[in-house]
Design goal:
The complex is a heterodimer of chains A (63) and B (605).
Chain A lengths: L5 H14 L10 E4 L15 H8 L7
Chain B lengths: L2 H32 L11 H4 L1 E13 L7 H9 L8 H6 L1 E5 L6 H9 L4 E11 L1 H5 L28 H5 L2 H7 L6 E6 L20 E2 L3 E2 L13 H10 L16 E6 L6 E3 H13 L4 E4 L1 E2 L5 H12 L3 E5 L17 E7 L15 E6 L12 E8 L5 E8 L2 H17 L5 H11 L7 H4 L6 H39 L7 H21 L6 H4 L3 H9 L5 H24 L10 H24 L4
Parallel strand pairs in B: 4-7, 4-9, 5-7, 6-7, 9-11, 11-12, 12-13
Antiparallel strand pairs in B: 1-2, 1-3, 14-15
Helix pairs in contact in B: 1-15, 1-19, 1-20, 8-15, 9-12, 10-11, 12-13, 12-15, 13-15, 15-16, 16-19, 18-19, 18-20, 19-20
The chains are: A mainly alpha (63), B alpha/beta (605).
Chain lengths: 63, 605
């Protein structure tokens, strides 16, 4: 995932609020194994929240 | 005080002392008699299990040490047999073998030998053979026979020793009490590899696991097979087939799993589906629900579904979340759920575990940062492979998803132990948890202790039954003595009313706790001497009969309180620890003695 600056992060946060999504960019009613999509319980790998959001919203990627 | 009053006081005091001393012994005896015997783990001594034969005319004699050299000729004279040492070893050990001479009686010969001052023992020779020798099979070496603690049962699953998490929570001690039989645990997750259907297969170490019908809320059918691997792993911690010589063990392996699929192959799902699943599980006989899932937002549907299930007597256990920071997810944070945080193999909070005020208890969830090689929770599951199929193997996962089923399984053990109310189960889990040196918002009441929880549930239930039978015997004795006295023409009546008052004191707190729940705050009044204290103040102090009844009631309550205190089963009043409870108990016991003495001192008009 590309590194994103603080300005882009703020834009993503605003976009999440505008669209009424949860902090992971998914619909608010979404539930996850273990309560979060950021920890893969099977592999133990943790991913960054913005990386996860951008993997779900490719159109939000910096141009 | 008159001389007769003093005499009466001391008699009552002595009886009270005796009863208080004896009751824990009775309880202990009762408890011991109810604990199932642990399976055999050591090689049996042939004399215990082998089959014995007697050689018809062969006798063995063990001589006392230091007998003189003329013993052979003396015994030969006594028995009429020709005697000689078999070899040097038998001579050094002082053991003789000989054949009974013809015409001699075995019984009289043995009697004569045993009466001789130089003979320590004499008997007919017995042969033993073990069952193995009957069919020529050799004993198979079994690692469980060399355990250092042979009294504890261990499953024979080959990778059981890798389950550090079970050792941490004292699973083997729990299995001494029960293994979850009769409890149904709903696993609301990605499904479970529970059976071979057109949608999936049964995982290899679930062959002996009991399942009850479940549902797939994603596919809307009754085949909740797992297409992710998460739910099967969770179900494995609860009830993976155990002692089957395969893989690893489950904690409550005699409990039944109700597989419910609400999360997709990607591991996510919708809150409305989950709410539906919770209600479905409650309506279809689940006793415990495990939800190793959650989200960051509260949801009214899930909240009301949890309250609905809770009201129906279902205990709900949830993963606190894997945010690694403060803030417990939902549904874990709802008051009707037991939120579980995760610890690693060193007992410290796992790096990923969410924490916060709702955390009720901590349990092993694994932490590969603490121990990269063995830090995960090992269970059987199906994981999709590169060929589009599923690999059926054993995987070490980490997460609060793994911690939650530990608690759900122990809740099943507690349920199977006779404690059914969700609040009571939570209280047993918290009360028995191992205290840790850490904040309550990270560890809750402490780290799950399956051994103590199963033990406590056994005592809570068993002691109530013991008290009931004690009262039943009291009344039987009362009737018997009454009849005997009538037969003997004794004028005095047996004090039936006093027996009723004593029985009330002994059973009222149990009855109320059963009615209101063990965690109800009113228990503190029912278990105290407050009721007899008010009665004795309100009643006519000159009415000897009434006062005596209050005295007996007080005595019954005292016995109950002392009993529960000694057994550690005092009503579960949240937040009261041993040292906070002790002064209260002592005060009530002193008050009870005071009431008893005051009541018995009232003179007859």
């Amino acid at each position: 995932m590309p590194n994103i600056d603080e300005q882009k992060k703020k834009w993503i946060e605003d976009q999440i609020k505008r669209e009424g999504l949860n902090p992971f960019g998914d619909p608010k009613s979404t539930v996850y194994t273990g309560g979060t999509p950021l920890l893969n319980e099977m592999t133990g790998k943790v991913i960054d929240r913005f990386d996860y959001i951008l993997s779900r919203h490719k159109d939000w990627l910096p141009k | 005080m008159s001389k007769s009053s003093y005499s009466y006081f001391w008699r009552v005091a002595a009886a009270a002392g005796l009863m208080l001393t004896v009751s824990p012994i009775l309880v202990s005896w009762f408890r011991e008699s109810r604990i199932p015997a642990a399976p055999e783990t050591a090689l049996n001594w042939p004399a215990v299990n082998g089959e014995a034969w007697s050689l018809p005319n062969e006798i063995a004699v063990q001589l006392k040490p230091g007998v003189d050299g003329g013993i052979l000729s003396r015994l030969a004279q006594l028995t009429g047999a020709s005697l000689q040492w078999d070899d040097e070893t038998s001579q050094s050990l002082g053991v003789l073998h000989f054949t009974l001479p013809a015409g001699k009686s075995m019984a009289s010969e043995l009697a004569a030998l045993r009466s001789d001052s130089s003979v320590e023992a004499a008997d007919q020779i017995h042969l033993y053979r073990t069952p193995e020798s009957l069919n020529g099979e050799k004993p198979v070496p079994d690692s469980t026979k060399t355990q250092t603690e042979p009294t504890k049962w261990r499953p024979n699953d080959p990778r059981y020793d890798e389950q550090w998490n079970f050792a941490m929570i004292h699973a083997e001690e729990a299995w001494e009490n029960n293994r979850g039989r009769g409890a149904v645990v709903a696993v609301i997750d990605t499904g479970v590899a529970y059976d071979n259907t057109k949608k999936g297969t049964r995982a290899k170490d679930f062959a002996d696991t009991k399942f009850v019908p479940g549902y797939d809320f994603c596919g809307k059918d009754n085949m909740p097979n797992d297409d992710n691997g998460h739910g099967t792993h969770v179900a494995g911690t609860i009830a993976e087939s155990t002692n089957n010589g395969e893989g690893v063990a489950g904690l409550a392996f005699e409990a039944a799993i109700m597989p419910i699929k609400v999360l997709t192959a990607q591991g996510s799902g919708r809150s409305d589906t989950i709410a539906e699943a919770i209600r479905w599980a409650a309506d279809h006989g689940a006793n415990i629900i495990n939800m190793s899932l959650g989200g960051p937002f509260p949801d009214s549907l899930i909240r009301s579904a949890c309250a609905y299930a809770n009201k129906k007597g279902v205990t709900i256990v949830c993963a606190a979340g894997n945010s690694g920071g403060e803030g417990v997810g939902y549904p874990a944070a709802y008051p009707s759920c037991i939120a579980v945080s995760a610890v690693g193999s060193n007992g410290k909070l796992s790096f990923y575990s969410s924490w916060g005020k709702p955390v009720a208890i901590a349990a092993p969830g694994g932490d590969k940062q603490q121990d990269p090689d063995h830090g995960g929770i090992l269970q059987n599951t199906l994981i999709s492979d590169d060929n589009g199929g599923f690999a059926d193997d054993y995987y070490a996962f980490q997460g609060t998803s793994m911690a939650s089923p530990h608690v759900a399984a122990v809740a099943a053990l507690v349920y199977a132990g006779g404690v059914h109310d969700p609040a009571d189960i939570k209280a047993v889990l918290q009360r028995s948890a191992a205290k840790v040196d850490g904040p309550a918002n990270k560890y809750g009441a402490g780290i799950l202790n399956a051994g103590d929880a199963a033990h406590l549930s056994h005592e809570v239930h068993g002691d109530g039954v013991a008290r009931f039978w004690m009262v039943a015997w009291l009344f039987a004795a009362c009737l018997g003595i009454g009849k005997l006295r009538n037969k003997m023409g004794t004028a005095a009546r047996y004090p039936l009313a006093a027996t009723f008052a004593l029985a009330f004191g002994l059973l009222f707190p149990d009855w109320l706790a059963g009615f209101l729940g063990e965690s109800a705050h009113f228990n503190i009044i029912a278990h105290s001497e407050l009721i007899p204290a008010f009665l004795i103040l309100g009643l006519d102090s000159n009415d000897r009969q009434e006062m005596k009844l209050v005295g007996w009631m007080s005595f019954g309550l005292m016995l109950h309180l002392g009993w529960e205190f000694l057994r550690g089963t005092i009503p579960f009043i949240a937040g009261l620890g041993f040292w906070q409870l002790t002064p209260w108990v002592i005060f009530n016991l002193i008050l009870g003695i005071g009431i008893l003495v005051a009541a018995m001192r009232v003179e007859r008009k």
